[in-house]
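Next comes this protein.

***
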Amino acid sequence: MAVFLLWSVSAFAQEIRVRSGEHGDFTRLVLDLPQDMQWQLAQPDARQAEIRFETGGYAFDLSGVFSRIDRARVADLSMLPEGDGMRIDLACACVASAFLLRGRMLVVDIRPGEPAVSEPALPRPALTALSELRVGSEPGIGPRKTENALMPAFAPPTVAGTSAVPEKSGTDPDAFERMLSEQLATAATEGLLDPALRGLLRPNAAQDMPANAQEPSRPAPDDPASTARTAIEAEIASQASYDLQSRIRIGGTACVPDSKLDVAAWGGEQTLEATIPDLRARLYGEFDRLDPEVLTALARAYLHIGFGAEARALLELNPELRDPVLVALAGIVDGEADRAGVFAGQTDCDGFASLWALAGASALPDGSTIDGDAIRRAFEKLPLNLRALLGPHLATRLAEEGQPGVARNLLSQLARAMGESSEGMVYSAAKIDRLEGAVDEARGVLEAFATRPGAHAPDAVVAAIEIATERREPVGARMTELSAAYATELRETEKGPELWRAHLRATIANGAYDTGFGSFWDADDIPEPTRAAAATEALTLLAEQAPDTAFLKQTVARANRFDGIAAPEAALDVAERLLDLGLADEAARWAELTGVDRAARRTRLLTARIHLARSEPEAAEIALIGLQGEDVLRLRAEARRMMGDFDYASTAYDTLGEAQQARSAAWLAGDWPALDGAQDTLGVTAALIRSDLPEAEDPLPSLALAERLAGTGAETRDALRALLEDTRLPRD
């Protein structure tokens, strides 16, 4: 069933939003990429840069780029053919550099300078067809078999009165399976199908049952199927909202109707003073029976004024009749995620559901569509107190999902309605500035929030430390102290792990490596995902900026302790620095940690370098098979030099423009003509080797011949003395 669903979903071109900002001496462009997308930046021309992706078919939203920057450095932006990248036309002699931020934001900085012109790498061949999963009349993996004209055709035997070729059916098998999968998905979405709980009975249950026992008509409370169903429901309720947002919805009315979400109609100006007391008085009727209609009305009244916890407690009075929509709304109003997934996948709905779906999701799957206009319209219809409560969070979520324009519009609309900007609105605006690349403006606001008491202070401390470490700057003493205080005070709260992680980042960034890693190994109460992220950040900072002694102390004997915790990128950072320090064996251990992709280009280059450091040139050549590029040619030249193939090494170094290395290889190869014309020791020595002794013109030696021979001998001695001096081994 899952195969049918995945197969029936068509692939559409994704739109990549491009944001911009001026930062003094450079211009910054930010592209919001899908997760794990491969990219490459090159400058094929002095006035042009290109960003290429591994696959094509992407569109670019460039509408707001030049509203925040001028054309002093970036003259124009355009899409490459087939949507496989973006071209940046430069208006100056500038250098473009890029890095990936938070796994999905490609940051491109354009600065004045002399660019090193580089041709973009050729696109990698498309491999998706080789692993395509096919269902239908010709199931299988990979491309469909094509007919070979050189092979005899298969003619099935015929029965009298029938045709050898069947008539084309009016129903295409592929279309039928697609239709069937869509209808099943629609029925499941609408709640018309219940899963059959097969395989959930405990082992050996059949043996324990008497032979003449009959299946009960309905499960008993301790029945395994009932227990399994309860376990499944509990598992669904405990899932993260991100997982629930990934559910596939095909067809059907997947959106919660507006009639169930008309919060404005659930109360009025006298809700708190009159409506709620009246409903509470009528909640229990005759014989103390709970009135379900009054309970629903009272829960809605609480939600109207923003009392989510009270509404949820009220709904718990009658679990059998509790409305899941109201339960989800109660959690979202209190700032929690939609853990039950009531609004999962509804951010593109043209109604109130789009607002609650975005507000209740901490993250959305790649490719999710958000109807910003529907969210804005739904927001306008909320009561003012709910707008003030949800507005800042909703604006931040819009910006995080690539719609900063709608987010700023929402905040402006809320400020006009309230007559002022609240602290939450100012804080949200600062986060939007940061997401759009205006980091300096955001940093000042965040640090101000961090240093004064308030609900946003802990989050502001985390954000300020993130900005400092992303820029590879030391964290101020004030921020470090605040992060330590909050990490201790709020350790047992929901914000505790992130505050601990922020304090660890600050400690490592300030060079207190023993203290930082000591606190890391003592943090057994921190959730594993947070510990893994913290380990990755700490190792990256350590590899980039720590002195050799501190770096070696934390890494040489601890590869196994970080195995399964540190991300592959951080492990490779550590391995590369260990190799630069001459520790090939230790570098190899880090390069073999769990999760490191052995087939990735970076890993293969590192493996080749490790083999060369171990004097294993043949193994290095094997590691480089199939790779291209100057870095690969340089390693291959070194491997050939170590194997004695000096002719290849000389040619390779000459291609790379490394004249001294090329001349050294030519000397070892005995290619004396390649050394002609140089005035260095190798050139003089090569000329001496190729020269002949003076020949005597007369039978008897003359004084002139003797002088020439003496001069030649002196030149030979000087050349040999210079050669020995240049090749003298150091005493240490």
Summary: The CA atoms of residues 172 and 477 lie 70 Å apart. The radius of gyration is 35 Å.
